[in-house]
Amino acid sequence: MTGAAALLAVSAGLAAAGAAALLPAPARGPGTAATRSAARWWPAGAAAVLVLGLALLLGGAGSALAVLVAVSPAVAVAVRLVRATRAERRAVATGEQVALLCEHLAGDLRAGRPPGPALADAARTWPPADAVARAHRVGADVPAAWRALSTGPGAADLRLIAAAWEVAHRTGHGLAEALQRCVEDQTRARATRRVVRSELASARATARLVALLPVPALLLGASTGAAPWHFLLGSPVGLVCLGLGLLLGAAGLTWIERLAADARRRA
């Protein structure tokens, strides 16, 4: 295989991987389980096809199997990181919607609106909150409905709303005042979380950039006729180097992501 052909194959694979990382996450709306499963796993399939195809061109079926064994753990880690990033973005978006919901609800109650209509209007800001409005209409446990919603990603602040609602119901204390205090606490907490995310963003971006630095070096070597892909994918020593390099890179990224996740949880 010529250096130009290797360069073309790897460039196509990088384009596919970049598209997989940049595409938005599948919507959690209507759709079959098979469709959602395909949308979730096709980036891993694209990476596997790229690696196997390149190995077959360079060294045949035996080389393809060895390469698959060498790179599959790193590919799995990469797909997991992409999915975790998407989940984090969805949680942040949900948190912003929850904040708008709480502000809307507190404002309506301060203006003197009854809880029922205020809940119905607030649910338009965040549709899942309609379950709370229905619970209030039928006389069910409203704090329990809030707590059920708070278990979702990004909705943990609703536990404060549930507690405030329960205290106001049991003690007769003003619900509007209790919710307003919750909104103020949530505003301060969100500001802290934004600072933490912004401080972590540079470190996470640097780690991912460092992990990708070998790729342009390999492409440059292939363009000059050095044939680094033949060494990495067509020889035992190259396969060992490839596997160890990918595993170390994946381990570093995983470690940094866990540190970042721990910092976000404590914020």
Task: Summarize the structure in words.
The chain crosses the membrane at residues 49-82, 209-231, 237-256. Keywords: Membrane, Transmembrane, Transmembrane helix. This is Type II secretion system F family protein. By secondary structure, this protein is mostly helical. It has two domains: 3-19 and 43-90 and 213-266, no CATH class; 93-190. The protein contains ten helices and no strands. It has helices at 3-22, 33-110, 115-125, 130-137, 142-150, 158-171, 175-212, 214-223, 228-234, 236-266. Helix 7 (175-212) runs antiparallel to helix 10. The protein starts with a helix and ends with a helix. The model is unreliable at 1-42 (pLDDT under 50).
Give the topology.
Elements: H1 3-22, H2 33-110, H3 115-125, H4 130-137, H5 142-150, H6 158-171, H7 175-212, H8 214-223, H9 228-234, H10 236-266
Main β sheet profile: none
β-strand percent reads under 5%
Structural class: mainly alpha
- Can you tell me the number of structural domains? 2
Distance between the termini: 52 Å
Low-confidence stretches: 1-42
SSE run: HHHHHHHHHH
Mean of residue pLDDT values: 77
Portion of residues within helices: over 70%
Shape: elongated
Taking Cα atoms only, what radius of gyration do you get, to the nearest Å? Answer: 25 Å
What is the number of E strands? 0
What is the overall number of helices? 10
